[in-house]
Amino acid sequence: xxxxxxxxxxxxxxxxxxxxxxxxxxxxxxxxxxxxxxxxxxxxxxxxxxxxxxxxxxxxxxxxxxxxxxxxxxxxxxxxxxxxxxxxxxxxxxxxxxxxxxxxxxxxxxxxxxxxxxxxxxxxxxxxxxxxxxxxxxxxxxxxxxxxxxxxxxxxxxxxxxxxxxxxxxxxxxxxxxxxxxxxxxxxxxxxxxxxxxxxxxxxxxxxxxxxxxxxxxxxxxxxxxxxxxxxxxxxxxxxxxxxxxxxxxxxxxxxxxxxxxxxxxxxxxxxxxxxxxxxxxxxxxxxxxxxxxxxxxxxxxxxxxxxxxxxxxxxxxxxxxxxxxxxxxxxxxxxxxxxxxxxxxxxxxxxxxxxxxxxxxxxxxxxxxxxxxxxxxxxxxxxxxxxxxxxxxxxxxxxxxxxxxxxxxxxxxxxxxxxxxxxxxxxxxxxxxxxxxxxxxxxxxxxxxxxxxxxxxxxxxxxxxxxxxxxxxxxxxxxxxxxxxxxxxxxxxxxxxxxxxxxxxxxxxxxxxxxxxxxxxxxxxxxxxxxxxxxxxxxxxxxxxxxxxxxxxxxxxxxxxxxxxxxxxxxxxxxxxxxxxxxxxxxx
Length: 589
Ligand code: M6R
Hints:
The protein is of the alpha/beta class. The protein folds into two domains: 3-244, Aminohydrolase, N-terminal nucleophile (Ntn) domain (Glutamine Phosphoribosylpyrophosphate, subunit 1, domain 1, 4-Layer Sandwich); 259-571, Rossmann fold (3-Layer(aba) Sandwich). It is 37% helix and 23% strand. The chain is built from 19 helices and 25 strands. The strands form four sheets. It has an eight-stranded antiparallel beta sheet, covered by helices on one side. A hairpin with a 5-residue loop joins strand 13 and strand 14 (228-229). The longest helix has 23 residues, at 418-440. The protein is globular, with a radius of gyration of 26 Å. 5-amino-5-deoxy-1-O-phosphono-D-mannitol binds next to helix 10 and helix 17.
């Protein structure tokens, strides 16, 4: 995710563009920049940091009526001034901003370097202005279209040329782009909230369309045929906050619905996980360290490795840093997991581990965050910005990255047969569609939440890989509904907590179709005998999930529990995005 913006009209473009960027910052916030036409040149101002900080430090000029801008969520290349957008060609004639991922950028870049193009960044994006330069022979639109046709992957692009200060070109494939229609001025943005204070009339660009935006006209064409397309003009009735949530009532719900994509994005990291597994096989002891939700992903990883006969430990950061660390040495590998990469206890654990000469790799969502800078290696989950305090899609990203890592390590050690490995990988690629099926069942889950909303205590039980699922389900409900929730390994119920069960206490039993299903059924009977209200999560459960390999069940089985927690919170009239007493990143001890 990144946010892009464009303006053409009679007002001061950079000022307007920064206002638009501020409203797009939820899409990315590690660096920002603006490019505008003034005095016959395109001037570019950009840097690492948040939009407001950059705006303060930049000389924005006051005489430009045309410009483009970008707020970045790093994918290729760490957050830095060089990697910030906009990017230009060798002669600063063409400047562009891009959201998406250009999959074939390496081969394009190599070809362009052979033709003497000079690159200044590590980004995939920078190939685009150089391609336009390569194809340019006097017609900006034609060079732009030829360049865009060379790209594989996803993109929303805005481009300006110093020879054509009366137009902005734009194109889209799988990344959002809209045009806000003004009076003698037009606006371009990744998303509607950016233009809402200026206009409520918008055109939504569809995949494989491109456009020519001038101050008094907008023309949209088919990228393949070049034919002009008549587009519908929509009147937007949402307010800005509603628009940022893309019509979802809360960020948390939006992020739960982004879980299929979080899985897809993490799957793209398979080469990196294979590379790290190659290193991990040389260490005698493996430790996973993390906090909160990320620590449950760590626990899943530990169970996965155990499945393949590889010992490891999963420890929360606040304990690891003061205890586990004492037993570390250079034969240890530490895998630190964090959405933000800024969690104080996880960072301190890694710093202590490094003092003991342990090897550290981190599994992180936020590119360039503190944790990534102190780790030997990094696996990015690429889940996109997570705004809601309660972590949801980032957890799925972590689970997928760790599953890939554990499977690769098992293969490195010769502990998994190739056919089984391929079967699981195949099934893993089907998980996004299966998650979608769970999300389609939203209505049923909402009804169940209504029934449960006044319960004072919840029990979540699971075994092995799904004990962490129970922990995560319980944490979610605690965080956003403020009710007591206990998570137990199902076999432990009888060792104490059973005393708390009485009529109507909800027991949510996570029961995949595996070799422990019958054992789980016995544990459920123990609770049923105390008249507890049993809610089974399984293939034929009350919360239904599609069939999947039991090893992948933590990824799929948590989805209905995320939705359940969300709907219990809203049924209680609470705001799940802003739970009391909590912060998104816990940067203090
Ligand atoms: O950014 P991190 O993944 O390091 O954050 C760790 C925890 O603070 C975080 O998962 C927290 O538990 C969430 N609020 C859970 O929803």
